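User: Could you walk me through two proteins back to back? I'd like the raw sequence and the structure tokens for each, with a short line separating them so I can tell where one ends and the next begins.

Assistant: Of course. Protein one, sequence then structure:
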Amino acid sequence: MTTNAPQPEVLRYTAFSENPDGGNPAGVVLDASGLDDGDMLAIAAELGYSESAFLTAHPGERAYGVRYFSPKAEVPFCGHATVAAAIALAERNGPGELVFATRAGTVPVEVAEEGGTVRATLTSVEPHVDEIADADLAEALAALGWPAADLDPAFPPRIAFAGARHLVLAAATRARLADLTYDFPRLEALMHRLDLTTVQLVWRESATVFHVRDPFPVGGVVEDPATGAAAAAFGAYAREFGLVPEDAVLTLLQGEDLGRPGELTVTLRAGDPRVRVSGAGARIG
């Protein structure tokens, strides 16, 4: 972007909450056609949100190319910035179906008004779940300061993907999940080596309700307040291990420990490997 080029409009939205003070804030640039990689990274860094979405025109009706940047690097996919961008578009062009072309693949998004609340639902790329080596798991637990005995044995540690890679670890108690003080450089180094976007920390409250937290040191953020990509990955993980039915609607509560409560709805459909993640959103300021 040259110094004489017009400055892009940078919008601020929160995702997975109707309250601007809840959920996860994201920057949204609806026309990033004049920006290069350095420009987008600089805007994301100045905003300081965990991610920002940058949209460009893409062939097809209501279709957009989307790139996502944290304050430190580009990420292949971001769920909360997808929801934020979709709601921003709906406020200008009306609700309906959208198509986002991302580095991770094509992500359909549907925006609808439900009872006066605008909600966006993204459909993930096809997910998969991978093993984690014992040594890598031990290093992750050491960086978190979690004894192995604090893990819930019903949830095997795995790396889950639904657009980005997330290490899924389940706490045996809510108190364990609430006590999150980790070695930032140590966890960041491991995550870079394993190509992880976040660590998805989970505690199961009931059959369909989970509390989650997501350290995000590779993005330059201690913790992500609401993580749609990790929610999609977790849905695929939970289904693969029979922790939930093949047809299920899960509620993930995130951000409570940060003072930014949000709610993510994860929908699984039998016969369809993809995962749907939905939530509300609101403009900030």
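----
Protein two, same layout:
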Amino acid sequence: MNNLTKYQQGKRQKNFLIIIFLIILLLLTFLEIAIGPTSLKLINVIKALFLQGDKANIRVIWALRMPRILAAILAGAGLALAGMVMQSLLQNPMASPTTLGVNNGAVFGANLAIIVLGCGAISTTQGININLNNPYLTTICAFVFAMLSTFIILLLSKRHQFASSVIVLSGVALGALFNANTTILQYFADDTSLSSAVFWTFGDLSYATYLEDLIMFLVILISFIYFLIKSYAYNALISGDDIATSLGINVKRTRFMGLFLASLICAVCVSFLGIIGFVGLVAPHIAKKIVGLDHRHLVICSCLTGSIMLLMADFLSRILIKGVILPIGAITSIFGAPLFLFLIIKKKRGKNA
């Protein structure tokens, strides 16, 4: 078997695996639509999807469940895509949305809106329930500070030719600074504001509306197309900056645009939904195990893997404790951390073999 035949066979295998992942995603989506506090029969779900049958079923699916499901699919794909790009551009397997301080900046912005600007509230209609007086102001503040973190790091890195080590270290330092300021805000907060701030940090897909889903979709779609077009450049960067430059790639511009768009995706998702951990870190590693390092397949597989992970986490958050919806960010961390440790151990064993 010659090299060309092996390449074509490998390409067909990767395409087949991507199709399998797409089918899994569709099945999970249908499962999410059907199962909830009010489980619906298969025939009723199909009718409601086409706006037929009982109006109550139509409302449950299209007004309550569908915005949440779309948010899970989009945010999972976006965070995984952003994590994959950061890991590729920085040549750091530990890179994730936290690397550039995006999450830390968003948390500080949300805490500023809730605690200082008075966006937090507690309603007692049916027990104690944490709400936000002005969720849009909270979202705007979270987004502004998430992007502020990105711009500061990119400006600092520009003076050092966008060296990976400078970007990572700057992100760690800026993240620590935002964390410290968030702690100070919470220290002086009253009980109501503190509860609201902590609740926002948990991460919750129920924040999403169709408008927010549309914004996430547009940002992720534009970024996805860009990353897919630039996949050859990311493939070249695997061999190092010097080789990539010799192939005619502008490494500085590629790294700047990639990190900017990845941070923009993270900022949009986090500001709308709160902190959702480990998807951006773990999903790209799973995708690499499946399709390898060729970014023409890795970009697509990372998105599908992230969507599947977040859909599964959302499903578990709604069924683990009857009558209670657990914070989605906690679920992704509980299951993401052991999975990441497993991948590390398996990789280490592979090297030692």
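DSSP finds 14 helices and two strands in the chain.

Let me know if you want the two compared in more detail.
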